[in-house]
Design brief:
Elements (H helix, E strand, L loop, with lengths): L49 E2 L4 E7 L13 E3 L7 E7 L7 E7 L10 H4 L6 E2 L3 E3 L7 E7 L7 E8 L5 E10 L4 E6 L6 H4 L2 E9 L8 H4 L1 E6 L14 E3 L4 E4 L7 E3 L5 E4 L10 E5 L5 E5 L20 E3 L7 H4 L2 E9 L8 E4 L14 E3 L4 E9 L1 E9 L11 H4 L7 E9 L8 E10 L3
Parallel strand pairs: 3-10, 19-21
Antiparallel strand pairs: 1-10, 2-4, 4-8, 5-6, 5-9, 7-8, 9-10, 11-12, 12-15, 12-16, 13-26, 14-15, 17-25, 18-19, 20-25, 21-24, 22-25, 23-24, 26-27
């Protein structure tokens, strides 16, 4: 499964383990409950996509597509791993620190599994990052690191951790390795609710055929996770079969109370900062005399209550590129980007810029400030040259809930979104969950 290439003609993209820390209570919850000033202060390892040091920027964990015009694939690979996962990131500064990486095999709930390193690896579980390059002709100096994730012997959840010489984590990324023991079929469903729900939400029904393998008590032991746009913050867990077809050896999941429904939202907002010499799409003004360069985006407004607007987006992702010199990996400079959101009244909670640029988290550096006189939210973020998708999210009032993206973005059934289904199973007598099937669906594909 890969992201669909963007269709703009001008868009040319570049393309037993020892735990290192203690998992947070809910590994899939937004980070909005933390005090903003403490985001980088606590270096305790979290078993999710996380950045622990403010000098670490522009992290990408992906499977290469081999196509210059395509958005990178998410870090999901079959057990054969012909095309392994790649990690890239920048470390700001003029010196390249010595870094190492390791893999942690995790269970379904993203806690370390009780297996040894040699059970899932054929080499020592410590990999020195020797492939790095200094930035070229940039106002903000940095070192760009690249690592090809080693192949593993077991399917399941893996946490890739990069740490410094002192063993302090700098970043962590989730990686999925699957096998095809059972057959999963994911398809669009029909909402049973009222007219408003049918035009606002997207339902995904699915079934699992296990005729080719012997599973013990599959109705209780098979676990599934349903995701939208490869996000973990709003993924659906604890879905149980609505029908068990023993004779046909099939589990069916067809709900009627929105257990497997997602808000369709709107196509993501975007801006093009691949050039810092001329204004791209969504850019109102460039101040090139400053260090870093200042990029002020056009003023935006709420889209809630408006009709659906169809255009091709990248489902919240971003790609780094320098239009003048190419190779955004080390030619791309950093810029201070200013977001402007018009709002006649304050939202019912803190407002954030949200998307892959923020690791799908409510980070303090992406929090907007409300000016009651100008009736607008503004905020600044240090971002690398590239093309960005994002939206505006309101922090939830309930701990562990997903951010409220509907407040400013609205929601529509017609929106194009990508969904994927993860199927887990723990065989009797084993000590970890295997990822025994994976299926993806591009809903409303253009």
């Amino acid at each position: 499964m890969r992201f669909r290439p963007l269709s703009y003609p001008f868009l040319l993209l570049a393309a037993g383990c020892v735990p290192l820390g203690t998992p947070i209570t809910n590994p899939n919850a937004p980070v909005s409950q933390q005090k903003p000033a403490e985001y980088y202060a606590d270096r305790t390892l979290r078993y999710l996509d996380y950045i622990y040091d403010p000098s670490v920027r522009s992290v990408q964990c992906y499977v290469p597509t081999g196509q210059a015009n395509a958005i990178f694939n998410p870090p999901i690979v079959p057990l054969s791993q012909e095309q392994p996962v790649t990690l890239e990131f920048d470390v700001l500064g003029e010196q390249a620190p010595r870094l190492t990486a390791k893999l942690i095999h995790c269970d379904l709930n993203w806690t370390p599994s009780q297996i040894t390193d040699m059970q899932f690896l054929s080499e020592i579980n410590e990999f020195t990052l020797t492939n790095y390059q200094t930035s070229v002709n940039t106002k903000m100096p940095y070192y760009h690191y690249t690592l090809q994730v080693p192949r593993v012997k077991l399917s399941g959840n893996y946490l890739l951790v990069v740490q410094n010489q002192a063993g302090v984590p700098l970043l962590s990324r989730r990686v999925l390795v699957y096998e095809s023991q059972v057959v999963a079929n994911l398809q669009q469903g029909i909402l049973a609710g009222g007219i408003d729900a049918r035009y606002a939400y997207q339902q995904l029904n699915f079934n699992i055929n296990y005729s080719a393998v012997e599973l013990v008590n599959p109705a209780a032991e098979v676990k599934v996770v349903l995701r939208q746009n490869f996000r973990w913050d709003n993924a659906h867990y604890n879905l149980t079969p609505t029908f068990v077809r023993d004779a046909e050896r099939r589990l069916e999941y067809q709900y009627f109370n929105y257990e497997n429904a997602f808000a369709g939202l709107s196509e993501y907002r975007y801006f093009d900062a691949r050039s810092l010499q001329a204004n791209g799409l969504g850019v109102a003004r460039l101040l090139r005399q400053t260090t870093p360069t200042q990029v002020e985006l056009l003023e935006e407004t709420t889209r809630n209550g408006l009709a659906y607007n169809q255009y091709v987006d990248a489902n919240g992702q971003r790609v780094f590129e320098n239009r003048e010199y190419g190779n955004g990996a080390y030619n791309g400079d950093y810029a201070q980007v200013t977001f402007n959101l018009k709002a006649t009244t304050p939202a019912p909670g803190p407002v954030y810029v949200f998307g892959a640029l923020s690791d799908w988290q409510l980070k303090d550096e992406f929090r907007l400030t409300y000016d009651s006189l100008q009736q607008r939210y503004t905020g600044h973020a240090l971002l690398k040259q590239g093309y960005y998708n994002y939206d505006y999210a309101v922090a939830p009032k309930r701990a562990g809930a997903a951010p409220d993206e509907i407040y400013f973005e609205g929601t529509h059934q017609e929106t194009e979104n990508q969904y994927d289904l993860l199927v887990y199973y723990r065989p009797p007598g084993t000590r970890t969950d295997l990822l025994i099937a994976y299926q993806a669906l591009d809903l409303n594909k253009r």
